[in-house]
Fold this sequence. Notes:
The protein is mainly α. Helices cover 84% and strands 0% of the residues. The protein contains 9 helices and no strands. It has helices at 4-32, 36-62, 72-75, 77-103, 110-145, 153-160, 164-193, 200-219, 225-266. It is globular, with a radius of gyration of 21 Å.
Amino acid sequence: MVSITVMAGMVFAAVVAIGLPIAIYLVLRRRLELKFIPTLVGAGVFIVMVLVLEHTLHTFVLQPAADGSIALIKTNPAFYATYAVLAAGIFEETGRFVAFKLLRKRYQGVRTAISYGIGHGGIEAILLVGLNMVAYLALAVMINTGSGPALPPVVTDLLAQFDLSSLLLGGVERVFAIVIQLTLSVLVWVAATQQGKWWLYPVAIVVHALIDVPAVLLQIGMLDIVSVELIVAALAAVLAVVGWRIVTANLAAEKSTLAIMAAGRDR
């Protein structure tokens, strides 16, 4: 049997992972006049760069076993940690940079970065957490009601590992992750669209790598999950402030530019 509290945790994680990006888009769509195409591009770039290309590279470099375990974590943890943090940053930020170079031809302004970030971070939350939680919840209902075919031991063992605290942390972590994805999108948008700011692209790679360090340290047994979440929360808070300042400054500059252009047309 799967406890009601664990199932409630699954519902919470699923609602946050699926509902939060949708809610953010709906709220900001009117306030900032967001366009949906950059959101779709953000989602598509995440799928291609992370789920296809990065995953393919992981298969060759990490050579995971059939059960998903990676021997490299124990045999060469330093190499594993370095590779793990850099791979994510390079793939995701490069995808962002190329996407903004293409999008800027038709979609201008920092709003493009926000729309893209919602798509990138949103599809990550939905595919990696939201849909998994929905599937786990369906399996839990099947176990508790005795309906459906008998589940293999690997599935029941997996469900038995869940507890309420880890599921709540998983849901809260998605909030931090989306904030981080939005800020990284803003940084790379500036790098791709503003003259002389290209250096923010490698900065975004380094920032992304630093954010992934706690999770990698958890995998190799050097940190516990609570410490990881506290560190990520602190980093997300710092990035939120940085991202907010960049967005507000650019929105003000764009508004001023439009006012000057309008005044010029009226002369």
